[in-house]
Amino acid sequence: NNSIQKTKPQIIFHLASQAIVSNSFMNPYENFDTNLNGTLNLLEIIRKNKLIKSALFITTDKVYKNDNKKVRFKEKNYLEGKDPYSASKVCQEILTSAYEKSFFSKTILKGKISTVRSGNVIGGGDYSYNRLIPDILRALSDKKDLIIRNPKHIRPWQHVIEPLHGYLLLAQKQYENHLLNKEPIWNFGPRRQNFVNVKRICEIFKKYEKKLKTKVLKNSYNKYSESKILMLDSEKSRKFLGWKPILNIDESIYKILEWNYLKKKAGVYETSVKQIKDYFRLY
């Protein structure tokens, strides 16, 4: 609150969450405390301050009730959290919706406090553990075999620039009051061709990095409950924001390898700016 009073922002993006599924099993209390109370604190700050004109709460594609069928989830599909991580993100959705209906629906913030759900975001600069892409890069760097948990699990893989572009568009249109659809829930998923399994991701990496070797652990080891299939429908964002995903999975992975190579020569900032400019030349 002190920081917001000092800087006086008009737009807020809330991404300050615990974001690793395995961590939520190891530290469930910390996971809920961060994700639930962090969101509650920020909503209270927005409610009490008249500075904010637009806010996005970033949740996850894992908030949907998932029966492991090949269904592309839409914003109105049922929510359910079967593990501490997804449950805490559902809590963020419910909290934000409750505040929107209780405190913002009859104010200038109506339709301007949204929750957004993106796919499995990948890109340069992700060093998290128990995430496939960083684990691949570490395996290559350490010259070790990559340990794969679930080779057949399908995810909506997308390069980080794609949903970030969507978040910025949404925040701007909310701020300018130019939204034709003010239902404050939005999906930002990748192209259909990006709904591929873990094995396919590894195969693409092997095209560029011949030294990558993989090892699949047996089913008995896996102590974390993870959905087998996750897919998103982003038609609403296409229709009302003019947003669209443009990078296929091969292009997304190439950008990660390019980022890791160029950052050593040009630096992180310069490399990131280059990739953003390259992206908008394609858009």
SSE topology sketch:
Blueprint: H1 2-7, E1 11-14, H2 21-26, H3 28-48, E2 54-58, H4 84-104, E3 113-118, E4 120-122, H5 132-142, E5 146-148, E6 154-159, H6 161-176, E7 185-188, E8 195-197, H7 198-208, E9 214-216, H8 235-241, H9 249-266, H10 268-282
Parallel strand pairs: 1-2, 2-3, 3-7, 4-6, 5-9
Antiparallel strand pairs: 6-8
Helix pairs in contact: 3-4, 7-9, 9-10
| Helicity level | 40-55%
Largest sheet: 4 strands, parallel
Percent strand equals 5-15%
Structural class: alpha/beta
Please give the oligomerization state of what you see.
Answer: single chain
Unreliable sequence segments:
none
Notes on the protein architecture:
The protein is an alpha/beta fold and 283 residues long. Helix content is 47%, strand content 13%. The protein has a four-stranded parallel sheet, sandwiched between helices. β2, α4 and β3 form a beta-alpha-beta unit. It is globular and about 60 Å long. The chain starts with a helix and ends with a helix.
Keyphrases for this structure?
single chain; 283 residues; alpha/beta; 4-stranded parallel β-sheet; 3-stranded mixed β-sheet; 47% helix; 13% strand; globular
Summarize the structure.
The protein has 283 residues and is α/β, with parallel strands linked by helices. The protein has 10 helices and 9 strands.
